[in-house]
Design brief:
Length: 122
């Protein structure tokens, strides 16, 4: 069953096919400053419900990923990256990362967490 999410003001809305079964908590400067609890999806299982031109994008570092946020309230909503599960970018396996805190009627507390030391390992 699809699960919907949105930014604080509701101008940027999205849905994913299912609620996350695992959440990644990263302590890198970007994730920690935005309070991100990342849930990863394939592009086919993510759907942006807002017109793409209403969403702003931020890139930094090596520009491997695109971090999207609401152009009105500034809330970070989702990111697009190549798969990094092997430690190197795999551009043939794109992934969408959503901030699980933005999902409607979803409690992230009981969901299994994976901790990533992005501050020291990247």
């Amino acid at each position: 069953m699809p699960v919907k999410g949105s930014c604080h003001c509701g101008a940027t809305q999205f849905e994913v096919e299912t609620a996350p079964t695992e959440i990644t908590e990263c302590n890198c400067s970007y994730c920690s400053k935005r309070g991100n609890l990342a849930a990863y999806y394939t592009p086919e299982t993510f759907r942006l419900l807002t017109a793409r031109d209403r969403v702003s994008t931020y890139q930094f570092g090596h520009y491997l990923g695109s971090h999207h946020h609401c152009a009105i309230c500034g809330c970070g909503t989702y990111s697009e990256f190549p798969d990094f599960s092997t430690g190197k970018p795999d551009y043939d396996k794109p992934r969408v990362s959503i901030n699980a805190r933005l999902l409607d009627d979803f409690d992230p507390a009981p969901v299994q967490r994976r901790y990533v030391n992005g501050r020291d390992d990247w």
